[in-house]
Specification:
Layout (H helix, E strand, L loop, with lengths): L10 E2 L8 E2 L5 H4 L4 H13 L23 E4 H17 L2 E11 L4 E11 L2 E6 L2 E6 L2 E7 L5 E3 L8 H17 L5 E6 L3 E6 L3 E2 L6 E6 L6 E8 L2 E11 L17
Parallel strand pairs: 2-12
Antiparallel strand pairs: 1-2, 3-10, 4-5, 4-15, 5-6, 6-7, 7-8, 8-9, 10-11, 11-13, 13-14, 14-15
Helix pairs in contact: 3-4
């Protein structure tokens, strides 16, 4: 889960005419710590048949009610702009969020992990699975827990300007909707959540075939994110949200060599 800023490039994979488009979701790797280790671990669980989940269609992996949507409040351009505005507020607000991440695969694998985001722009730290990414005082944070249970951080390096990261994420979202047809259909429901439905075939879309995003009204924090893919469902749900962010939340910079 370690990058200094979100990949927002959109390109096409090489090949003959009709090559599938490849995209990267805005802030996907920055909003949540990359789950490469999670994917590998879940693969083992799935092959072993561990866990009591099921496919998204049989109700097991869809335990959060993804199949049932609230009444639509807005759609089209209005919903798209509302999502962009909500994401911008999320990335520029001050808050601390502790969440639970759950991955359930169609083969029955299941994994639970805790994640946290402490954000006071331009400082931001995301922790999950023993790792941490983000930036503090302009220094990129890239830390992991080794197999020897040692928490280590990469040498100090300059982080991309926070405002630049946010601007690029917003541009990436807007690019989703600028094409015809757009990559995702977006609706805003009366529950205050955005639901994204994939409109055209792409290679491994970061928000899957369907996604739901809910933002906390008082803080702007992302309080619920569900992503449904053919292989399973990922859910990140906030447990606590607070606007109290103390200076010592960013003491991690003392563990970065050369910072």
């Amino acid at each position: 889960m370690a990058v200094s800023g979100p990949p927002v490039d959109r390109d096409e994979s090489p090949g003959a005419d009709g090559a599938e488009e490849q995209c990267r979701a805005p802030g996907r790797l920055y909003a949540l710590v990359p789950l490469l280790f999670v994917a590998a671990f879940v693969g083992v669980l799935a092959l072993a048949g561990v866990g009591g989940g099921g496919s998204p269609d049989d109700g097991g992996a869809a335990r959060q009610g993804a199949e049932v949507t609230a009444a639509v409040v807005s759609s089209g351009d209005e919903a798209e702009q509302a999502l962009v505005s909500a994401w911008e507020r999320y990335r520029t607000s001050t808050f601390s969020v502790s969440s639970e991440f759950v991955r359930e695969t169609t083969l029955g694998g299941e994994l639970h992990s805790e994640t946290s985001i402490v954000q006071r722009p331009p400082d931001r730290i995301v922790r999950q699975g023993g790792g941490a990414i983000g930036q503090i005082e302009g220094v990129a944070v890239d830390c992991v827990t080794t197999s020897d249970e040692e928490f280590v951080c990469a040498e100090a390096a300059a982080a991309a300007p926070y405002e630049q990261d946010v601007a690029e994420e917003i541009e990436a979202f807007e690019a989703y909707f600028a094409a015809e047809p757009g990559l995702y259909d977006v609706v805003l429901t009366e529950a205050g959540c955005f639901e994204l439905t994939l409109r055209r075939e792409v290679v491994a879309p970061d928000y899957g075939n369907w996604a739901r995003m809910c933002f906390d009204e008082s803080t702007g924090a992302l309080e619920y994110l569900e992503i449904r893919r053919p292989e399973g469902v990922d859910v990140t749900e906030a447990v606590t949200i607070s606007t109290d962010v103390a200076d010592d939340e960013f003491d991690l910079i003392d563990q970065i060599p050369g910072a």
